[in-house]
């Protein structure tokens, strides 16, 4: 059993995003440049609608800005509305970038450890 993530598209149609091989075709391996995480800048902000409704009591949120992630080459995670305007991010899929950055970091660490060992450390 378990659970499925549910998504709502720009037309307000709800569906699931299947991950099993049996649902996919045209598979190609991919990697992200691990240094792209260095160009990802997080922000604190308050949503305009929350400020309009709550004034100074509107909560401060943390996140990324779709417009800026699009600019640095992460457009595949940017969501647009029916007019093509930026509307949000697929935050749950940004983990793909983090995984590639982590794999790169682990490979670099293993290389450094091997070099230290070779030097007799």
Protein described:
It contains 3 helices and 6 strands, in the order βββαβαββα. It has 121 residues and is an alpha+beta fold. It is extended, with a radius of gyration of 20 Å. The strands form 3 sheets. Strands 1-2 form a two-stranded antiparallel sheet. The chain has a two-stranded antiparallel ribbon with strand order 3-4. It has a two-stranded antiparallel ribbon with strand order 5-6. Helix content is 31%, strand content 16%.
Low-confidence stretches: none
**Cα distance spanning the termini:** 49 Å
Helix content: 25-40%
Query: What oligomeric arrangement do these chains adopt?
Result: single chain
Question: Can you describe this structure in just a few lines?
Answer:
This protein is an alpha+beta fold and 121 residues long. 31% of the residues lie in helices and 16% in strands.
Summarize this structure as a short list of keywords or feature phrases.
6 strands, two-stranded antiparallel ribbon, about 120 residues, alpha+beta
Q: How would you summarize the topology of this molecule?
A:
Blueprint: E1 6-8, E2 14-16, E3 43-45, H1 48-54, E4 61-63, H2 66-71, E5 78-80, E6 86-89, H3 95-118
Antiparallel strand pairs: 1-2, 3-4, 5-6
């Amino acid at each position: 059993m378990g659970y499925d993530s549910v998504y709502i598209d720009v037309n307000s149609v709800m569906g699931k995003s299947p991950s099993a091989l049996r649902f996919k075709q045209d598979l190609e391996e991919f990697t992200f440049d691990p240094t792209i995480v260095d160009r990802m800048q997080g922000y604190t902000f308050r949503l305009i609608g929350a400020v309009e409704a709550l004034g100074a009591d509107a909560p401060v949120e943390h996140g990324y800005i779709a417009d800026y992630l699009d600019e640095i080459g992460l457009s595949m995670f940017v969501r647009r509305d029916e007019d093509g305007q930026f509307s949000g991010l697929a935050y749950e899929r940004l983990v793909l970038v983090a995984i590639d950055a982590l794999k790169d970091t682990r490979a670099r660490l293993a290389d450094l450890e091997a070099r230290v060992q070779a030097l007799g450390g």
